[in-house]
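Hi R.,

Here's the chain you asked about this morning:
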Amino acid sequence: WPDLVMIDGGKGQLSAATEALRELGIEEDVNICSLAKKQEQVYLPGLTNSIESEKDQPALILLRRVRDEAHRFAINYHRSKRAKAMKRSDLNDIPGISSKRINDLLLHFKSINAIALASEQDINKVKGIGPEIASNVWRYFHPN
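And here is the predicted structure, written out as tokens:
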């Protein structure tokens, strides 16, 4: 188990995390604390009030850096995930269609809705799209 579990939050978040450790039967094996953001207060299980500390105390600085790094990591992860999702479109699910063909279709039709409304013959007129791919695209939007 880790030597310390640090929770980002106040007494409520610490209480929930302590309960989770209790349910796992490891409450006694793991040290836990929380760091409340507003006034950088550190809480420990069983204490009503936060630990008295100075803002420039080395231990508090370390806890802030750990918290800030966790935030940075999470924000970068979510940004990366969102960027990947934005690059993906319904057209990626069509058999035989590459990102280049997707670009060609979007350049020609300007939107996915316009592609969905196009006839198979209109899709086939797009540079780089042959009859088989045109048929796959049309069938994707018209499954019946």
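One quick note: The two ends are 55 Å apart (CA to CA).

Cheers,
M.
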